Amino acid sequence: MGRKIIWLWSLIFGVGCLLLLLLMKPATPPKYIFINETAEHRFDESIRISIIAAMDRTGIQNAVVITDKFDLDDIKNRAATLFSRLRVGEHQHGRGILYLYSPSKKALKIEVGYSLESALPDATVRGLELAAKTFIYSDRYQDFWAELVNTLNIEVYEKEHGLNEGQDSHFDFSKFRFLSGGAGITSRSYSPTVSQLKSEQITSAESKLFAASENVSNSVETYLASLRMGVGESKLDILSPESWVFRDNTPLTTYQLFRNWRMYRKTGVDRMFVENMSAFVFFKAGYPTLPIVLKRHQGKWRVQEALSWSLFHRFENSMNVYLKFPIQGISSELSSYLKDHMGEPLYPLEKPLKLVTLENYQLNDSDWHSLYFQLFWLSKVDQKIENVSKLQNDDIWIAIDTYMNLGKMAESSRCYDLIAARMPQNQKIQANAEFYRELVQFKDAEWQLNF
What is the pTM of this model? Predict the structure, then answer.
């Protein structure tokens, strides 16, 4: 009897200890971390999608914290504390990155997990941060996060798979103000003005070095040389007048231009098409590299930067480039190439774009279609969109693309649902509508959204 009592109490004690250990064991950290303590939440959906896309591609946990609740001088310690407190990358074997950003203080700290330190040395992180900085000063703030998160993750992926060429030694970082943050970087150069960004651009004292040519290939080489040197001024001769306006409204950082050059060099030209007064330069498959579009202006071939952005699209979770809208008036050879390499256009306009219209375009900010296609001033297009349900289908497609590029994914999905309701027999559109509907229905149980 005594032995049974002892055994029973031992069992009770053992079970109690086990329960105590289970209660003391830390809860499994959430799969995704996004904390925004500011009053600005317009881009939350877009940032969360970037976090998901990056983790799906590389298995890295990317934690984004946007807050003004810390002293500027304490940003490095604050980031290190948060990294540990949020257990960033704990279940990914140290593969984690924390982005701590203060909008009011214009400061960013990137903290890199121990498993990624060799793949993301300070110089690499600095360069990618500089490239992403471009989008802070335009109406594409959501692209700052998409660019920052995805380029860091792609850098790791390429190094781990032997695809990375390494940091190019020709770029000079000396002009930029950095504070070393150990593994990762601290930047306090997020001035609230575009003038600050432009003051950091490299300008060309010898504009004739970047003169347009009567030969398409020569103009392409000149343009690539300007990117390699990081020359960000708008009124280069190699650029079209529309691109001058585009760069004035979307200033490109020196390193963003340099990064574009690295991508073009790595990818290599696949095909070049000359179509009357336009030219299209396509790059090899396997890299999300936008084509270069040129326009013959005053007898010379000049690069249409805005048109590359407005005619073509790349998604965060894909290595492919897509044609947005169908184009009329192009050769059968180019038409076949687009179909074979890019599939069907993303947005099947009932009145496709005419190449001659794009070639003869004149700046006109009262025509929101032309404004959209040529200059990519998304916020102005957004302001023109009213009562979507009354729009024609072509206008709804433009609204879908505008909202998507502004990071307004819920609005984009609602517009896609409207198109799907009007075209119930089109199975591809039905499937796409369902995909976007599910994309914006986040499973909050998988997320840490506050402290």
Answer: 0.81
